[in-house]
Design brief:
The structure is a single chain. With 387 residues, this protein is of the alpha/beta class. Helix content is 31%, strand content 18%. The protein has 11 helices and 9 strands. Helix 8 links the parallel strand 3 and strand 4. The longest helix has 16 residues. It is globular.
């Protein structure tokens, strides 16, 4: 749960656009109030000051909460960001900003279909939405960039030089609410850094030439691209097959762009391949020595799907490294806990020789200042294998 008066990240708290028609007046009003805490903390919309002329007018926003009431974990010993920094993280996060703009635009465009108690309430909410939306264009003629290029540099003690990866964080499509794979998330950055700083922990120094590595839910492909550059540099030219997989066509298009950017010179075999993969229907014939995934659990069914997918793809001596993001606020609160629950179920998949897929090791990782999004408390890294 979030602290009283805390601001929630728009990406995990706004009513879904496709469900706006069924959202209540209270839900929409609360969402607008939360957005004002983030983006308009020092001024109020005109609609808030206007006196109510009708007894049933309920859609007014409350006065803004002071800036230092931004949300963070209740356990301040485990999270380094103070309240003010957490709120600033939300306000400056381009992903949260784009999510908010898209939601407000949809709200205004569908106003006539929304369930309000009166026309005055509807008009008040629209005024508030328009005011918040206008705050994004206050910086004169500056336009939001369509694409954000991000450069990552990871140090590796076993390599002769640092691992460099350049990513294109593409804008969200606006038509598919599941295209969050177009953005780079904190867990993929943390995991990529860990792979480079301690390759032996992940058995990267012992990979055979014909081994296979697959990233599930690759998104922008940061982890797979990092492996594509790291593994050959620490294995004297050994280059296992590395596949970055995702399900969504838009995400795969951006992923292929990122692969071409980082590996521009043609080779007999691509250093990293982009392939479509549905967790519910993975290929049985593919036996993988290393499966890896970062921040891909966003629903209570995802952990079970991942578990069963890994059971069908993982080689007898293979390892599945799964990093999940721990969130304590918004609609993803508690989702991380579903991973451990999935591996104590009675229907856990077993191998042909009767072995069971189990969590072998768990490492808790604290959130790092300046990495990740505002709703992230920390991360849990699971080592999963046949036991």
């Amino acid at each position: 749960m979030s602290p009283a008066g805390a601001a929630l990240p728009p990406s995990s708290s706004l009513p879904p656009i496709r469900a706006l028609i069924t959202a209540s007046e209270e839900q929409i009003t609360a969402a607008l109030q939360n957005l004002q805490k983030i983006y308009c903390p020092l001024r109020l919309p005109v609609a808030i000051h206007a006196p109510s002329h009708r007894a049933d007018k309920t859609a007014h926003l409350a006065p803004p909460t002071p800036v230092d009431s931004g949300y963070v974990s209740r356990d301040e010993a485990s999270v380094s960001l103070d309240l003010e920094e957490a709120l600033l993280d939300l306000r400056t996060d381009p992903f949260e900003r784009e999510t908010t703009i898209r939601w407000l635009t949809a709200l205004i465009g569908r106003a006539d279909t929304l369930a309000f108690s009166s026309e005055d309430s509807r008009d008040s909410a629209l005024d508030d939405a328009a005011f918040i939306l206008s705050s994004f264009s206050d910086s004169a003629d500056e336009e939001e960039p369509e694409h954000l290029t991000r450069d990552f540099l990871f140090a590796c003690p076993l390599a002769s030089e640092n691992v460099q990866v350049q990513l294109n964080d593409a804008p969200l499509s606006g038509t598919d609410h599941t295209d969050v794979g177009l953005q780079s998330w904190g867990a993929s950055i943390i995991l990529s850094e860990m792979l480079c700083s301690d390759p032996k922990r992940f058995s990267l120094t012992a990979l055979a030439q014909d081994s296979t590595i697959i990233e599930l839910g690759a998104g922008t492909g940061l982890v797979a691209l990092t492996l594509g550059k790291l593994v050959p540099s620490i294995n004297h030219g050994t280059s296992p097959r590395i596949m970055a997989t995702d399900y969504h066509p838009t995400v795969l298009t951006n992923l292929r762009t990122n692969i071409a950017t980082n590996f521009p010179h043609p080779t007999p075999r691509l250093a990293v391949e982009a392939l479509q993969l549905d967790w519910a229907s993975p290929p049985d014939a593919q036996k993988v020595e290393l499966l890896i995934a970062a921040d891909v659990v966003y629903d209570r069914t995802h952990a079970i799907l991942l578990r069963d997918c890994a059971a069908r793809m993982l080689a007898p001596c293979g390892t599945f490294w799964l990093m999940v993001t721990v969130r304590e606020v918004g609609k993803f609160e508690g989702i991380a806990a579903t991973v451990e629950a999935a591996f104590i179920e009675d229907d856990v998949s077993k191998s042909q020789d009767g072995r069971k897929l189990e969590i072998v090791e768990k490492t808790e990782i604290a959130k790092r200042k300046g990495t990740g999004r505002g709703d992230e408390k920390g991360y849990a890294l699971y080592k999963i294998g046949w036991a």
